[in-house]
Amino acid sequence: MSQTIIPRAAVLGIASGVIFMAFFGTLWAGIGIRGLQGWGFLWLLTLSLLVGVILLIGGIVLIMKSKRLSNKMVEGDSHGWKRRNMWFGIIFGLEGVLIAAASAICVSTNHLDLFVPVMALIVGAHFFPLAHLFQVKIYYISGSLLCLLSAITLLTLPVRVTWENHQIVVWWTSVGFGSALILWVTGVSVWLKGHRLLNRAGNRSKEDDVTFRL
Fold first, then answer.
1. Cα distance between residue 132 and residue 135, in whole Å
2. Domain residues of the chain, as ranges?
């Protein structure tokens, strides 16, 4: 009876996704903290780092547990993973180029406040090809939420507000914390998917052991 083998590369890819979400989610939280212009700096920074570190540890645990999985893949699977990795590099590189271009335009036109919402729009858009490439449905949701967050911020919120003689950059705060939350929740969801794959691999290993003994 043929069974679908869960290759180590699949879990490593998921673990990489979790680590990416941990790192970039924390960076977005840093943007939100900067938008507050000093309010709650220490405890918000501590909380953000704590969430990021927990997700990072989760990704590392997936990598460690994936060592018990086989590295063997059929020729078609091996070619597929190489192609996906190539396209991931292209998508990630294009995202970086667009963000750099947006930064240069915003700085040169003296509209730096606009950069953070535009960056969130670019990051959100890059999730759509990734969702198709890696067949991760939640990436469609993450991308849609990031784009929606950016659009709502640009269309409905003021750039800055002053409260008790303290100025807050509303666009940076709302987009920063909102994007961080979206990425962290995405990271948890992806981690759960990796955990389920490991459990499936463990159950199949037990079934194979029982069959061998019989």
1. 5
2. 8-68+75-201
